[in-house]
Design brief:
- The chain is an all-beta fold.
- The protein contains no helices and eleven strands.
- The chain is globular, with a radius of gyration of 14 Å.
- The model has no long low-confidence stretch (mean pLDDT 94).
Length: 120
């Protein structure tokens, strides 16, 4: 089992920045890729960015050039944290942001979500 705890959401004006963090605990040695998804009111959950254990990243077109995903894995696998740096935020970025971790056997874990609100 893997537990994910997000932090860093909040209210920001358009053009501002936020950094989200997601700390993994439990069987973190089993984690392969991690990522961020978001869900706006009335819309389906969508991919924002992912990063593999090897550092390969993938971004939604809507956030390319504005968001940066990064990952910190301790040598002893005791800590595994993923970050999402969000710059040049737009009102359409407003959503609940969820951290995701996929294990080596394709089991998917989710955090509880953190609200990001961008005012115009």
């Amino acid at each position: 089992q893997v537990q994910l705890v997000e932090s860093g959401g909040g209210l920001v004006q358009a053009g501002g920045s936020l950094r989200l963090s997601c700390a993994a605990s439990g069987s973190i040695f089993s984690i392969n890729s991690m990522g961020w998804y978001r869900q706006a009111p009335g819309k389906q959950r969508e991919l924002v960015a992912t990063i593999t254990r090897g550092g390969r990243t993938n971004y939604a077109d809507s956030v390319k050039g504005r968001f940066t995903i990064s990952r910190d894995i301790s040598r002893d696998n005791a800590k595994n944290t993923v970050y999402l740096r969000m710059n040049s935020l737009k009102p359409e970025d407003t959503a609940v942001y969820y951290c995701n971790a996929d294990s080596l056997i394709s089991v998917s874990y989710w955090g509880q979500g953190t609200q990001v609100t961008v005012s115009s």
